């Protein structure tokens, strides 16, 4: 049975990729000249919603925006008066070549890392399409992607106009053991498969140099794992080596001490940061270090907790405790002026849940923390565009910007969660992604 499975594996992967390509060609159209009329439009730079707006798109670029845009001859007009237009959403913490079955132990994480490389790429193409259909037009993929499989996926997507744009980190830099809490002796090969292990400053420079040579867009480092903290001098060496290549650094942190070490070492961003003290948050604000809160909404949290078998009062108390901690940390960061950037960190394969919509749902968690809708939307548009150094191309709907626009069914300002879950149409690079038009 095992031999038969291995013989059939290449053909199964080829068929999967072929089926995906066929479905994609029936979904996307060529770039067109289009004039959209919308009930509301989110102005990410002014942090406000405008009414009765028109958007003229041609050659993949936004040509005009306003209340009285003249329709050029031959341009197709689309009336979306019941929709809210926003810039294409930017998810700054994705794992598109990692899809983990939810389990009560670390077994799911380990098994997801064992999937053959070509199958992970095929899987990544599907997940990228799911994100695009949900309104995410740009993502920053942060590891758990084998040895540069993210770059292979990035290249595949870049060959077809109207596909998700990816920024990638390559393998995560980590101390010995990576993020695997426990591995059988036969599985220890996964550590070097999924991570660049840093034991000393020479390792740090060597890893960053290799990443730069492969063409990554950012360096991601684990400042802490279940195996302990990465030493401050190693974090500093990673930052200095990255600067020499013009690369920014973002740090995975769970503990406050790890976050503080990373900030003092000079990183540009903190991922997660679940337990940040006031003094660490203040340090982030002073040093202009952004925060990527990979939080969960109440609805999503209930689904995930149910998936690990926790029930009743125990489950309710556990969820509320976690939500309160996330909300408190986020509000303290916002109050002190830390730049907030949307990141989903969604990598679970849960029956009935879509990768793209589950990723976008993280924005609901920020709203549930008490952040106004107009500010939440900045976290997914103009703020990440600045971090990516792409604020002159994406993150706003204005003349001269790339035509990455999402049209949500309903009034996003007045009915945020429901409208956010109903993307009616997506325009990516001027390509209209819609089966109904």
UniProtKB/TrEMBL annotation:
Q: Which residue ranges does the record assign to the Amidohydrolase-related domain?
A: 85-431
What molecular function does GO assign, one term?
A: hydrolase activity, acting on carbon-nitrogen (but not peptide) bonds
Name of the protein described by the UniProt record: Imidazolonepropionase
Q: Which organism is it from?
A: Dyadobacter soli
